[in-house]
Design goal:
- This protein has 545 residues and is an alpha/beta fold.
- The chain is built from 21 helices and 15 strands.
- A hairpin with a 4-residue loop joins strand 2 and strand 3.
- The chain is globular.
- The structure holds adenosine-5'-triphosphate and magnesium ion.
- The site of adenosine-5'-triphosphate has 21 residues, from helix 7, helix 9 and helix 17.
Length: 545
């Protein structure tokens, strides 16, 4: 039996926490190209004006995506994503912020050139990984600083970025793979590192990219369990005679998106109109964000198409649904971020445009449900914008209604006002059983059975969460901790027990960060004991229950 830790050790841990916190974060570092030469040539005052301008736009982009600026280094910044509050999508946010900085700077180029006679360019680097966050008292100021390899790596990577570009480390790419477009920027040997390090150039963040889309692109493994949940969805479809809503609720990674995907796959050959859209953590200020995706899919509009093609597709779609008018065409174009023809929306203010767009979307859905069964698949309602929330309520409340089924997913922290109403079926996704968890792991490792001790460790770490199992298996394979040998699987139990993949760590930290400060502190102290602990021991170090 393991010996319980002594009270003295726990007290030591409590004070150590005050000295530095281990955390997984993302670093964004920028550098103004040719700044020293500019100071020499244009003088201190012009240099100050330039730095103010550039740092203003960088800070705005970083804040816009939830990062915090830690340091201004004269001509650059160091920004962190994932502190003080952990961000499960911190790496993707940092990518968006970096590209937005480059865009804002390019847009401001003419103005800065007219004022200061130079067109500034930035090099930006992105890294992600573990750091120690500590409060450093320098005498005059106290602030939290990040210490760790990834901060040094960000500085080195930056030197390899071509002016105007964003580069990132291999670990960073792994976190955002499938959600961004990137290309190789070469391999480099950095001081203090023995191995060559691949560097990648970030080209773009994909539209509506989600972690699940990235998983689909990598290849999904067989679907395990969840037969009763699929049966609930089938039953709603069979009983469809008015509006049916299935409210799918569950923790991150538990399998909400996969359930919708499996349902949609099972009906891909049927004459059902599946309209799909996702809310996004960065899209709460964009009115109708999930419906923008719905309209794009509905009318087969792909990104990068010429505007005239898009106009043609919307035009044809509006006619098919008996909703054509020049104003309606203008409203849809405006919704997709394109210019409405002529001055068709000129006499409407923003509120009126919003109201008319909402009414149009409602009518289009009604018309479509007259023609075929419509299934509206809406993902991640915990991030829904208020315009979409209003529209959904209208759709659900409408009377008399054409048959329509809405399947939406959300995490437990948000509940829509229609949850719990008659006609709204709630489907809470429970953790997978141990045998289902192991089946996913076996498929990922490519074996029919796992050694008992490895199976126990995986079940314990995965907590019945499908994403955790997949990520843990991927991490163990990538690091060579678990290897296939002629006689089965070879693994190092100590290493399996020791680490968690960054993606899982980020989700767990984000979960802890949602607790109250007291509960969070208590949990951190308790973590020193292990996953299960004796409340008596905690009360001895001053945490009573
Ligand atoms: N029953 C299952 N069998 C096999 N794989 C599964 C199962 N459920 C989920 N997965 C896989 O686990 C991963 C996470 O699932 P999913 O993306 O559906 O989670 P989620 O609940 O939508 O999470 P989030 O709240 O972060 O969107 C996906 O790669 C998915 O394919
Ligand atoms: Mg999901």
């Amino acid at each position: 039996m393991p010996t319980p830790p002594k009270v003295g050790l726990l007290q030591g841990a409590a004070s150590a926490l005050n000295q530095g916190e281990h955390r997984h974060i993302t670093v964004l570092m920028t550098d103004l190209v040719g700044f020293t030469a500019f100071v020499e040539q244009a003088g201190e005052e012009a240099a100050f004006a330039l730095v103010s301008h550039v740092s203003g736009l960088m800070t705005a982009a970083i804040h816009h995506h939830g990062g915090s600026v830690k340091n201004f280094t004269g001509d650059g910044v160091l920004a962190l994503f994932g502190t003080p509050i952990a961000l499960e999508d911190g790496p993707l946010r940092a990518c968006r912020a970096a590209l937005e900085i480059q865009e804002r700077l390019a847009d401001a180029g003419d103005k800065i050139e007219a004022e200061l006679g130079c067109r500034p360019q930035l090099r930006i680097s992105l890294t992600t990984g573990p750091v120690v966050l500590g409060a450093v008292d320098s005498g005059e100021s106290t602030g939290v600083t990040a210490h760790g390899d990834i901060v040094n790596l960000a500085a080195r990577l930056q030197g390899e970025a071509a002016p105007g570009t964003v580069v990132m480390s291999e670990a960073m790419l792994r976190q955002v793979e499938g959600m961004v477009d990137a290309e190789s920027a070469g391999v480099f040997r950095f001081k203090g590192k023995t191995e060559l390090q691949p560097v990648h150039r970030l080209v773009a963040v994909r539209d509506h990219a989600t972690r699940f889309d990235a998983a689909v692109a990598r290849g999904l493994s067989s679907y395990i369990g969840r037969t009763s949940e699929l049966a609930v969805l089938e039953e709603q479809l069979q009983r469809l005679h008015s509006v049916r809503v299935v409210d799918i609720v569950g923790d991150p990674g538990i399998g909400k998106s996969r359930l919708l995907y499996e349902f949609a796959q099972r009906h891909s050959a049927d004459r059902i109109m599946m309209l799909r859209g996702s809310c996004s953590s960065h899209g709460q200020e964009t009115p109708f964000l999930p419906f923008i995706e719905v309209v794009r899919n509905w009318f087969s509009v792909s990104s990068g198409e010429p505007e005239s093609t898009i106009v043609g597709k919307l035009d044809e779609g509006l006619k098919r649904l008996s909703c054509w008018s020049l104003q309606n065409l203008g409203l849809l174009l405006n919704l997709l971020g394109l210019k409405a023809p002529g001055s068709i929306l000129a006499e409407l203010d923003g509120t009126l445009i919003g109201a008319r767009t909402r009414d149009l979307l409602l009518r289009l859905i009604e018309e479509q449900s007259r023609l075929s069964t419509v299934v509206l698949l809406l993902e991640d309602l915990h991030w829904i914008d208020s315009a979409s929330e209003d529209l959904l309520l209208l759709i659900i409340d409408r009377e008399p209604a054409e048959p329509l089924i809405i399947l939406h997913t959300r995490r437990p922290e948000y509940a829509p006002v229609w949850a719990g109403r008659p006609g709204v079926v709630q489907l809470r996704l429970a953790p997978l059983s141990s045998s289902e968890t192991l089946r996913i792991a076996q498929i990922r490792f490519g074996v029919d059975e796992l050694p008992e001790s490895l199976a126990r460790l995986i079940v314990e770490k995965a907590e019945g969460n499908a994403l955790f199992v997949e990520e843990i298996a991927r991490y163990l394979i990538e690091r060579g901790t678990v290897r296939r040998t002629p006689s089965g699987l070879g693994y190092d139990a100590g290493m399996v027990a020791a680490g968690l993949p960054a993606s899982v760590e980020l989700l767990l930290t984000a979960r802890v960060d949602r607790l109250s400060p007291e509960d969070r502190n208590l949990l951190q102290i308790a973590a020193v004991i292990g996953r299960r602990f004796d409340p008596q021991l905690l009360s001895e170090v001053g945490f009573g229950f």
